[in-house]
Amino acid sequence: MALVARDMNGVNSVILERMQSKVALIPELAGHLIAGGGKRMRPMLTLACANLLGYPGTRHHKLAAAVEFIHTATLLHDDVVDGSGMRRGKRTANLIWGNPASVLVGDFLFSRAFELMVEDGSLKVLRILSHASAVIAEGEVEQLTAQRQIGTGEEQYLDIIGAKTAALFAAACRVAPVVAEASEDIELALESYGKNLGIAFQLTDDVIDYASDSATMGKGVGDDFRDGKMTLPVILAYARGTAADRRFWEEAIGGDRISDDDLARAVSLVRSTGALADAIAHARQYGRRAIDALAAFPVSKAKSALTEAVEFAVSRAY
Amino acid sequence: MALVARDMNGVNSVILERMQSKVALIPELAGHLIAGGGKRMRPMLTLACANLLGYPGTRHHKLAAAVEFIHTATLLHDDVVDGSGMRRGKRTANLIWGNPASVLVGDFLFSRAFELMVEDGSLKVLRILSHASAVIAEGEVEQLTAQRQIGTGEEQYLDIIGAKTAALFAAACRVAPVVAEASEDIELALESYGKNLGIAFQLTDDVIDYASDSATMGKGVGDDFRDGKMTLPVILAYARGTAADRRFWEEAIGGDRISDDDLARAVSLVRSTGALADAIAHARQYGRRAIDALAAFPVSKAKSALTEAVEFAVSRAY
């Protein structure tokens, strides 16, 4: 964060300026989420990657803001889809202003993101980010169809989080070498860094939902459980469970056993089967791949920061 | 339609090809709306405007498909926002597959629209359509904030329909001269045609909601009334009403008087005050402006078709 503080001020200026509208509800609702404790993880990646490449300009400020707008639009729609009530320790926008407002302000931010990219004027950047957006939406729909489906396997899970989460991390990283006019190799390396970091990040998030005694980032603990989301801890615990445990998971994921006692049993099972520990090990493995993708870059503050970002992403589960 | 039949086949091919996804729910849900009796009004405008300019290529097929995707995404989200159950005489997607699926498939189509535009590669087209998308979303949010607000006036109403409906009509028309590399004057003329046609179209739609004995396009009659939408028939009838009528409108728009009897009284009031007739007259007036915007173009089949489109848009209220 310290490394890119000055650039982040530039990004924040773009964000604040471009979320304005004569329709007062738009900045009000968007501001609740954007100003409200977000980590700016994705724009920070764009900035840190640009720093890594010694890019001296400011073009990436608009693009980093666009990435954050896409992310915010996704969060607004996610909370509607999941009927969530808490995010980042605050009441969700859909709870305060209702689902219709969240859907429509999300659409606005998404459109505004494209306007920002078009203003930048790079067709290559537009290609990367419009494709990422389609992949994200596709992943969100796939997640929806997998919800409450106990038969969902690890491959499909990885496919879903690769799309819904890692695609935007990858795109956020890849736009930096594009504006810095770096080589294709560098583009691919940073895309790989972002992709693997994104998977590690989501795996960790999904572990946190069952690690009730750890930092929970303000999300309600057990949300995934009650929503019947087939995350890796569940997939592994189900695969390894006794007949009785498997019946429990079938009923729980089906939505018929979601009391606090059921959640406590689920937490106990994901621990005792080693599912949670292995999900964390997977996250660390993807984190290692992310760091390996940076191998060709010489030592620099930016490289250290990108390495620390991986550590931050995977250590949240403790 | 006959004029652009061959081009429309090209557009339909793009639409069918690009709404596909390995996630089966996406083409299933999107196809329900896209294949299901839509008039393809907006892509037809792109095609007819290109025909008017003698454009010989096929670049506009992708762009017309993108316009239809943006429109379809908007419809999916609109039906979620309004909790609608019927559209084009069929059950709505949100009723069949639920709100979450409609929100997310809408997001996918919206992203896919941008991918299509990026593939075309014209930054000018991207600027026009990304701006139109932001304006549409802004208009939708403004409409939401005006809902159940009896104080909403004619100016704000025109602002809302100019944004939520006419902006996409205008953009659909304007992209044609851009791909045909016509002059700025021609761009502005066709944009003006589309904008005014769009306003005429929406005014007529809003009249139809109170003209229960006329063609209703498969929408539920009285939907706007029950949703507390401040459309022009209500705005005029309220302004011209007696004290008792005004109290009725206040309660009805507030959501406290929305029975079938109340709807019958509303229909009677919008007729007796002349509100409906004047809203139709307004629609005709905007239709005339649309036709006037075509004045500089020489006589051609395309010009006749664009003129007939105006007649079609405003005559639906009878």
TrEMBL record, chains A, B:
InterPro entries: Isoprenoid_synthase_dom_sf (IPR008949), Polyprenyl_synt (IPR000092), Polyprenyl_synt_CS (IPR033749)
UniProt KW keywords: Magnesium, Metal-binding, Transferase
UniProt-listed Enzyme Commission number(s): 2.5.1.90
Gene3D superfamilies the UniProt entry points to: Farnesyl Diphosphate Synthase
GO MF annotation, one: all-trans-octaprenyl-diphosphate synthase activity
GO biological process, one term: isoprenoid biosynthetic process
SUPFAM superfamilies noted in UniProt: Terpenoid synthases (SSF48576)
Cofactor dependency: Mg(2+)
Top-level taxon of origin: Bacteria
Catalytic activity: 5 isopentenyl diphosphate + (2E,6E)-farnesyl diphosphate = all-trans-octaprenyl diphosphate + 5 diphosphate
Similarity-based family: Belongs to the FPP/GGPP synthase family.
Cited function: Supplies octaprenyl diphosphate, the precursor for the side chain of the isoprenoid quinones ubiquinone and menaquinone.
Protein name: Octaprenyl diphosphate synthase
